[in-house]
Every structure is written in C-alpha cells, then in structure tokens.
Automatic annotation (TrEMBL):
Pfam families: Pkinase. It comes from Chara braunii. InterPro entries: 6-blade_b-propeller_TolB-like (IPR011042), Kinase-like_dom_sf (IPR011009), Prot_kinase_dom (IPR000719), Quino_amine_DH_bsu (IPR011044), Ser/Thr_kinase_AS (IPR008271). Residues 493-793 form the Protein kinase domain. The chain crosses the membrane at residues 414-438. Residues 372-386 have a biased composition (Low complexity). This is Protein kinase domain-containing protein. Residues 372-405 are annotated as: Disordered. It comes from the Eukaryota. The keyword DNA repair does not apply. The keyword Transmembrane helix applies. Keywords: ATP-binding, Membrane, Nucleotide-binding, Transmembrane, Transmembrane helix. GO terms for molecular function: ATP binding; protein kinase activity.
Length: 802
C-alpha cells in the first residue's frame, strides 16, 4: 500500500491467487491489480477505482492494462511472463502523480529489475530499466529527491540510491542508474550481518536522515543513515536459527518473527512494524535512528497475517494506520499522538484522556464475536469492496493457455480478496484476536462511568496487552478527608507512626472505622497549590491502574492544600527490613520467627515478579528507583507461606511532578541521590538511569535475604557495602560461607539439611552477583532473574518437596 499525504487517497496492490488442494503452498494462478481508494468513502460503499491489472513484460503499450491476465501452466512453464511488483511508492508529477513500482518478473527470470511509473489518474505507464540485479524493496525519500533500492543479487545484499528529477521534468529517465550506499554480508548469523532487506514508503524518519530496515531472516530491525559508507544501527530484535517466541521488552530482551513493513511517526521516535507471522508491533526509540527503548505487541492475527502498512494524518492530534491482511481486509487504526513517545523533554505531567489506539464508532466489517475468525469480511448485506470485480473474464494471451478453471469442490481452494475498509477505532478485540487499546465510545456510557468514578479523568492505558487482560480498570479509589485521617491517627501522633522519614514522607497506622481493617497512611511532604491539586489527582489516577499481586494496592487518597496523603492496606507482617533486621519492631505483633530459606527464596521471586510487571507490562516502563528491603511488605499465610508486595513504586515520578521537589531517595537525572547500599554504580558514575538500576538493587536485596546483614554499615569509621563484603569471600560452598559468618546464622538448620539447600543458596548467590555487576549490560533483565529463581525453587521442590 501507499498513501498520499496531501490527499485522502490510498493506493493498493492486490494479489489474488489459488492453489491445488493437494499442494496448498504452490501458486498455480496469480493475478495482481492496482487500485485507488478514496478514504472519504471508507464505509464500504465505494468499490474503488481500478488503475490497472498487471501486464506481460512483452507489453510495451503506455495505456492502462485493464484485462485481468492470469498466466497458465503450459508444458511445465507459466505463460506469459508477467511484471511482478515487489514495492510501491508515490511520486509527485505534473499534471498527474505516479505510483513508482519496483518490477521483477514472474515466473522469475535472469533479468534486471525495472521501475514502472503508473499514472494515478488513468493508469497509463512508462518504465525505466535499472542496474539492480534483484530488487527486494524500493522507496522514495520524504522530499522526493532520491529513490532507494534493496538489491538481493549475489553475492551480498546491497542498499542503493538514485536521483529523482523534480516536476515538471519526468521523474525517471529511460534508464535509472543506482549507486551503492552499503553492502551487507549474506549467509552468516551475527549482529554485524543483515540478510533480506525490507523497507517501504514510510520507513524513513520525517526529514529523511534515517532509513529503517527489516531483516526477515534474522528477525531484526536496523537503522542507517541513507548516505555512502554508513554503518547500520541495531534497533531491536534478536538473531535466531530456529523458531523463537515473540517477547515484548526493551532492547536486550524483545524478540519478534520475520518483520516486514515499517512506518515511522512524524516525531521520529515511534515505529510501527508488521511481521509475516501476523503481528503488529510498536517500537519506541531512545533517539531517532537509535536503538529501541521498548517493544510492544499491539495486535496479532495468526490465521490472516498482516500484509501492507501505511500511515496517514487524520488531524493535528491523531494519525491513522491502514493495516492490510492476507485475507484482503484493511483495518483503519486511529492513534492518539498524545500517547506516543516523543523523547526528551518529558511528556506533559497531566496524562491525556485517550488511549494511543482507539476504535471509531463505526466498525466495518462488523465483528460477530471476539475470536480471530471474526476478522473475516462480514456476510451481511452492507456494501463492501470486492477485488478483483467479479465481472471481467480472464484474458488468455497465449493461444494455448486455458482460462482459469471454475472452482470444483474438493479439488481447488480459492482466496476471495475482499477489502472492506474497517474503521476500527473504540472497543477492543480480545487477546485471542486483535489486541487494541480500549476507549468507551458511547457518550452516555462514558458520562455514566465518569459519574460513578471517584476520580476525574478517563482511563489511562498503562499496561501491556497480553493474554491476561486488555485495558486494566482503576482500582476503586476513595477520596478521604484530612479530618478523617487526622482522627484515625490522633492527629498524626508519633505513636501511630510506623515509618519515619522515608523518601516520600512519614507513614502512619490507623483505622478508618471501627469495623474496617487497618490502613497505612503515607503523608506526603510539601503543600499543594490549586494547579498541583489537579496534578495530584491525575497522578493518583495513574498509580491506581498499576495492578499486580506483588504490588501493594492503592486504596485511596487525601487531596488538601495543607497536607496530602496516599492510603494503602496495612501489612501486619511488617517490611522485609523489619523481618530481617528488627523482628520485634512490627506494630501490634510479637517477635516473628526467622524466615526460612524457602520463604526467603519465595520473597525474592515475588519481588522479581512485581518488578517484571513494572518493567515489561507498562508502557513506558516504570523504574522503581528505590528498591530496598524496607519497601517490601510481607504478610504471613497458612503453612508458612509468605505473600510479599513491593511498595513505593511510581512515587519517584509522582513526587517530582506534583511537588517539584528533589527528594533524597529519588534518583534523578541531575543528582546521584538514592538509598545508600542499593544505588546503581552506573548511575552514580555515569548518570545512566535504566531499568537495570532496579535489577542492581534487587541483587542487593537477595544478598540481604541470604546474609541477614544490612545493605551498608559502618566499620572502623568506613562504610562497608554489603555487595563488596560478600564478593570478597569468593565462590565457596554454602556450608563454608555459613561457617565464616557470611550467611545468616538463622539459616544454619536449613543449610545442614543437604545438598539441595546448598544448591539453592549457591544459585541465589550467583544471581545476586550477576544482578550487581557494575556494567549494567552484564546484568540480567528482571524477567530473566525471575525465571532463574523459579527454576531454582522448582528444582528443590522436585527433589525433596517444599
């Protein structure tokens, strides 16, 4: 597909083909055609304008070729040989615009690729011979001065470019000579090698200074400056010699299969990518022409993979993606630009009120269910676009060629090419089909929802859409008065204080009523102006949408110009810090028994799972910035089970936005603040803040769990970091480490049980060491850490039970 940025037209290359029932992958009959679609009539009532069918290479006529020619198999060869188009873009012209088509032959022959110019008015054409051996892709840069080609002829893949004449001159001469920009080695796996190069009309960044390449074979996206002798930059994806899973994540963890079409948003920081396997992927970039910040799967349809992708500007606030499928269906996806990543400076502090992908009120074709099969064109009596039209009869050029046989039951299968233009922009199609952001589309329902919601504002999409949920609704959040909070804490009396001088204020214990369970009230430092009160509510609204069993739930808030507060459930088991270092200090509780080795491993895994959600299931990822044992709350369950949750997540950004304050324990881009003993040395030394900062702090917590020592302490007037102290002992058996006093003496009985317990300790120590590597590139991501802990715990259970 190609689109006209100045006019409401979409240009389509449609392929119809059929195969014998006994050889479904063998194309016996093919037909290509070129269509012009008016987007103003996207309700299915306009059958589009046929510009031309494909033409035999022997046909040199300049007039539109309206006869649907289907090559026939004669004496083992298809005849006639047709002009097979591998790419399409739009060129300005006077008095008419042209589609520029990258042309090979079908069936393939040893011949140079051509460029064909097809008039968007009457379908007339001209051609230009090139020096490209075997074209894979063609595209014109944004200012329409150069055309780029990917050449797959042996021995290597090459990126080429040629000049395009400005109107009113003909854009292409009778022969177009391309110059080589880059060469990519074939046939060897590795980060420096690129195989099949795919790009399209909108694979350039807005100013044309960067071209994004899709490598279908090695499952990667690359970026390159379209100039001679420039090296490509690895954007996202991982090399694999076998089938791999599709995983969302950051640059180091994300993977996808066989990427193809790439479009770049006008800001240059977002890519939308389709894959041959049927996925629509959203990639945010650290910088234009830089590597991926995050990769997220937005949609998939495994039965009808996506084929064709273009972007069109809807208005000043929204973009539209047109997404084609191999079933001949086109979906129109509307994108709220307010939710796209735009790079530094930071996005506005008040969240916009819509989701990035919305669905329009009108849907075509209508969906009967939420299954993948519902993506087929509707059989209702509403009008639809049918390509090719049913009326023309195939024209046989060769006298010996037979017409296309009629369909016979059980002998041949035909794909009906139906193109209803689906305005898919407000409900969500479930995870088994297309996964899209959800936005309420009926005003009365929206108003009703708003009236019943305790927080103002609309739903804000924070979660990645996986097989568990679409848009996660907010928790039921209550607004509490300052007077009520004062009453239940006796005026925030010191006796009710359970957390003093934390990064975000003091924490108090209280009961909102005689029958309600106790709560923890975090009283924030700083006063709220009128504008900041609105900001406070907006940030609370955002926090309320972070849901995970290993994250503490936000119950309510207090918004008052004198004081503001966040209300959480009270955890009678105290914090992990208390359970390790001060077991008698939990309010209203007797001294707790020491945590067992199994409990400590379980707590570590639960912390990792909570962080995995923040890092991998939220866009953009949430960096906690202050992971430590005092920010892990525990609740004792039956049979010695422990439930652990992470607290204070999202509060670093919350405080920065609402209070404009530099908080001691908030790691900011301008100061190396943080909790001593847990701070990432890469940030302290290089001001580099990534999710790996949380991984480092998580490793310190594992050391705390195993040693029973604090993250940092003073000895002989010097501060001793726990990480340095543990690593000083090297790799010794767990029994030796316990003898030397490295491990918590409370674990002596556990370690003495046998080799399974020793193995668990050793594996956890290795993980802690990996997480606390000084070079953050050498640290695992938190998802990998969680899986390693799962394996360690499962192995112990397999051998000798819990």
């Amino acid at each position: 597909m190609a689109s006209d940025s100045n006019e409401p037209f979409l240009y389509l290359l449609l392929e119809s083909k059929c195969s014998p029932a006994d050889a479904p992958g063998e194309d016996r009959h093919r037909l290509l055609s070129y269509w012009k679609l008016d987007l103003r009539t996207s309700n299915g009532t306009d059958n589009g304008e046929l510009l031309s069918h494909w033409w035999p290479v022997s046909n040199t006529s300049a007039t539109s070729f309206k006869d649907p020619v289907i090559p026939q198999l004669v004496n083992g060869k298809f005849s006639p040989v047709m002009a097979d188009v591998v790419a399409m873009d739009l060129l300005p012209g006077s008095p008419t615009k042209h589609l520029v088509l990258g042309e090979n032959t079908w069936p393939p022959q040893l011949s140079r690729s051509k460029l064909a110019l097809l008039s968007t008015v009457d379908g007339s054409r001209s051609s230009s011979l090139t020096n490209v051996g075997l074209a894979f892709s063609f595209a014109v840069n944004p200012n329409k001065t150069k055309i780029f080609a990917a050449d797959a002829s042996p021995p290597n893949y090459r990126l080429l470019s040629a000049s395009v004449a400005a109107p009113p001159s003909p854009p292409l001469a009778n022969e177009t000579l391309f110059e080589q920009l880059a060469v990519f080695q074939k046939g060897a796996f590795g980060s420096a090698n690129i195989s099949q190069i795919w790009f399209g009309p909108q694979s350039f960044d807005p100013n044309g200074s960067c071209l994004y390449l899709a490598d279908r074979e090695y499952n990667k996206i690359w970026a390159i400056e379209p100039l001679p002798n420039k090296a490509p930059v690895h954007v996202a994806g991982r090399v694999s010699t076998s089938t791999q899973a599709v995983n969302d994540g950051d640059f180091t963890t994300a993977s996808f299969l066989a990427p193809r079409e790439i479009v770049v948003t006008p800001d240059g920081y977002n890519l939308f990518v389709t894959s041959v396997e049927g996925f629509l992927i959203w990639i945010t970039l650290e910088s234009p022409c830089g590597r991926a910040q995050f990769v997220q799967t937005l949609a998939f349809d495994l039965e009808r993979p996506f084929s064709g992708l273009v972007m069109h500007s809807a208005n000043s606030t929204h973009l539209r993606l047109y997404l084609g499928t191999t079933a001949g269906t086109i979906f129109e996806l509307e994108i709220n630009q307010a939710f796209l990543y735009t790079g530094p400076p930071a996005p506005p502090s008040v969240p916009p009120s819509s989701a990035p992908l919305e669905e329009n009120v009108s849907i075509w074709p209508p969906f009967d269910s939420l299954s993948p099969s519902s993506l087929s064109p509707s059989s209702s009596q509403e009008s639809r676009l049918s390509f090719p039209p049913p009326s023309p009869t195939p024209t046989a050029i060769d006298s010996s060629a037979a017409p296309l046989p009629k369909r016979e039951s059980g002998s041949r299968q035909y794909m009906a090419i139906l193109i209803p233009l689906a305005a898919v922009v407000i409900a969500a199609v479930s995870a088994v089909g297309l996964l899209f952001f959800c936005h309420r589309h009926r005003r009365d329902e929206a108003n009703k929802e708003k009236a019943s919601s305790p927080l103002p504002g609309k739903e804000i999409p924070l979660g990645r859409f996986d097989d568990s949920a679409l848009l996660l609704p907010a928790n039921p959040i209550e607004s509490f008065s300052l007077e009520l909070l004062k009453l239940c804490t006796r005026g925030f009396h010191e006796e009710h204080m359970i957390g003093k001088g934390g990064a975000f204020g003091h924490v108090y214990w209280g009961k909102l009523s005689d029958t309600s369970p106790p709560v923890a009230i975090k009283v924030m430092e700083g006063r709220l102006t009128e504008s900041k009160q609105k900001q406070f509510v907006a940030e609370v609204n955002t926090l309320s949408r972070l849901h995970h069993q290993n994250l503490v739930n936000l119950l309510g808030y207090c918004e008052d110009e004198r004081r503001s507060a966040l209300v959480y459930p009270f955890f009678p088991g105290g914090s992990l810090f208390q359970r390790l270092h001060a077991r008698s200090s939990v309010r209203g509780q007797p001294t707790f028994p020491p945590l067992t080795l199994t409990q400590r491993a379980s707590i570590a895994l639960q912390i990792a799972e909570g962080l995995r959600y923040l890092h991998s299931s939220v866009v953009p990822p949430v960096i906690h910035r202050d992971i430590k044992s005092s920010n892990v709350l525990v609740r004792d369950g039956e049979e010695g089970k422990i439930h652990a949750v992470v607290s204070d997540f999202g509060l670093a950004t919350f405080v920065e936005r609402v209070y404009d304050a530099s908080v001691e324990d908030v790691v900011r881009s301008t100061s190396a603040a943080g909790t001593k003993g847990y701070m990432d040395p890469m940030y302290v030394n290089n001001r580099k803040l990534t999710v790996k900062a949380d991984v480092y702090a998580f490793g310190v917590v594992i050391y705390e769990l195993l040693t029973g020592k604090r993250a940092i302490w003073e000895e002989n007037g010097q501060e001793i970091p726990l990480t340095d102290w543990v690593k000083h002992f090297g790799w010794l058996p767990a029994t030796h480490l316990h003898t030397k006093g490295v491990l918590d003496r409370c674990l002596g009985d556990d370690i003495g049980k046998g080799c399974d317990e020793e193995n668990m300790v050793c594996e956890m120590l290795r993980l802690a060491a990996d997480c606390t590597e000084e070079d953050d590139d050498r640290r695992p991501d938190i998802g990998t850490a969680a899986e390693r802990l799962k394996t360690t715990i499962a192995e112990k259970k397999r051998r000798n039970g819990p």
